[in-house]
Amino acid sequence: MERIQTRRTNRGETMGNVIDDMYNVPDVETKREQALKEQAAKGSKMIWVTFRKEGLHKYPAALDDPKLATGDEYDVSFLGYVHRHIFHFKVAIEVFHDDRDIEFIQFKRWMENMYADGTMKLDYKSCEMISDDLYTAITKRYPGRKIEIDVSEDGENGSHAVYEVPVMGGI
Known about the structure:
The protein contains 4 helices and 6 strands; from the N terminus they run ββααββααββ. By secondary structure, the chain is α+β, with helices and mostly antiparallel strands. It folds into 2 domains: 7-42, no CATH class; 45-163, 6-pyruvoyl tetrahydropterin synthase/QueD (Tetrahydropterin Synthase, Chain A, 2-Layer Sandwich).
C-alpha cells in the first residue's frame, strides 16, 4: 500500500497525510506533546517554603565530653553554653495536584506562627531534633505526605531530613 506524501500548498503551508486528516489523527508532534503532559502529571511533586527564626540553644555535653572539649583547634566546648542563632528552615512537602494543593504562603505562615505562639520551641535542641518536631506537627495537619526539612544555624551548618510517607495506613 502506498502512503500519500505530505505536500506543500501554494502558500508554503504543509498539508498532513490525507488519510490522517480524514480520520482526525493527531500528528506526531501533538502525540508527543500529549505523552509529555501525561508523564508530567504522573510525576511526584513537592512545594517548599523558607523562613527564619531567632533562637537560643546549647549542647551541654560539649562542656566535658573529651571528644568535644579537646583543648585544641577542634575544641567546641563553647557550644555547652547558651548561644544565639538565626535558624534557617526550608520545608518541602508532597502535593497531590498542581493547582495549590497546599498554598505556599499559608503553609509558611502556619509554621512561623507555631514558633511565634510557643506551640513549637527551639529550646536547646539540635537541628535534627528541631526537624523531627516540625515533621510531627506538619504530619498531624497534612498526613500521608513525603516531607523534607532543612534546618541550619545561621544558614551555614545544619541538617537535611527526608521523611517518607508512612507505610502503616498513612498516619
